[in-house]
Design a protein that fits this description.
245 residues; alpha/beta; 36% helix; 4-stranded antiparallel β-sheet; globular
Length: 245
Amino acid sequence: MSLVINKLSKKYADGEEDTLHKISLTVEKGEFLCIVGASGCGKSTLLNLVAGLEQPTSGEILLDGEKISGPGAERVVMFQEHGLYPWLSVIDNVKFGMKLAGIASNIQEEKAMHYLEMVHLQDYKDYMPHQISGGMKQRTALARSLTMDAKVLLMDEPFSALDKQTSNRLREELQKIWMETHKTILFITHSVEEAVYLADRVVALSASTREIAEIIPINLKRPRHVYDTEFTELRHRILDIIKEG
């Protein structure tokens, strides 16, 4: 499996310049790729294009050689907002996508409980969304995303609306889940620390040119620790790249 982004550009009708300009990038199967950059550099636009929620002005996106022209079950999106249905319990929210896909009820139950255990919410499966914290809601949304077994999981700053302590805890959870599942993840974040913590490679976008400024491999052993010297050096290097861009 590979996701190939080829000379991708996006310009909105009311814009004078491209929001994204000739982006070329390949995401390999099982890779955790993070996109970083200053506000307005086109991070979320790139994710929306890969999700098929928007169409490029030029260029193309290929998944396993097939051109992406719209949303598809092989790409699951997790946004900043959890998007849970308030009238459904935690486990029924997790099952929702599988139910729409026509998956047998016994398999729905088995997979839902598997991923709820992975995000440590098995004891809260019958709670309603208003009865759990913001971090637990995002864990529920993550479990729901994982149940779909999509080829690519697209995550648009999923922890940015949470407090620092909760966000850090969920980073740790996501790192453990990725180490266990090796899902292919394209992750948008404004936090360089988060990107270095999670990614195999970090793609820094330039806010001035709307192009890729640099792709930085993160060759640090997992699990990672933010106070390690190598971690700190990589973080400062990427911050400098973004600042120059």
